Amino acid sequence: MKINWGTGIVLAFIGFISFIMYFVIQMNVDEKLSYDLVTEDYYGKELEFQEDLDKQEHAKSLTTDVTWTRTKEGLLISFPLDKDIKDITGKVFLYRPSNKQLDYETTISLSNHNLLIPDKRLVDGRWNISVDWQYHGNSYLYKKEISY
């Protein structure tokens, strides 16, 4: 059988389209190529962005900021010693960029100006920590990328 130019071009187009369709379908079906958004309510979080910037700017006025250290028991978050622990409220959010199921959020309940997040809740690797706390009507925000 003899193939002319027209038939060759049609076969080349069909082969190319099949090749592209294979990769499009493969990218949509493959589980290891599935990535989640940082947050489901992306646009709602964007509207709160200026508020977060104001909280971070307000935190710069503190004599000492929130600090963290890794201990045998877990992640120890320390609040400023000049603040009364009974009046500190808020929440701590740990975001794991590589796995949405590992994200962790807890309310602040302090003992001796420290909050301990147990080691069993955290795995080694990169985390984004966000401590949103209030003291006497003033709001503060501490954000940091940490390697645990």
UniProtKB/TrEMBL annotation:
Domain of life: Bacteria
Database matches in InterPro entries: FixH (IPR008620)
The keyword Transmembrane helix appears for this protein: yes
Residues spanning the membrane: 6-25
Protein keywords: Membrane, Transmembrane, Transmembrane helix
Stated name of the protein: FixH family protein
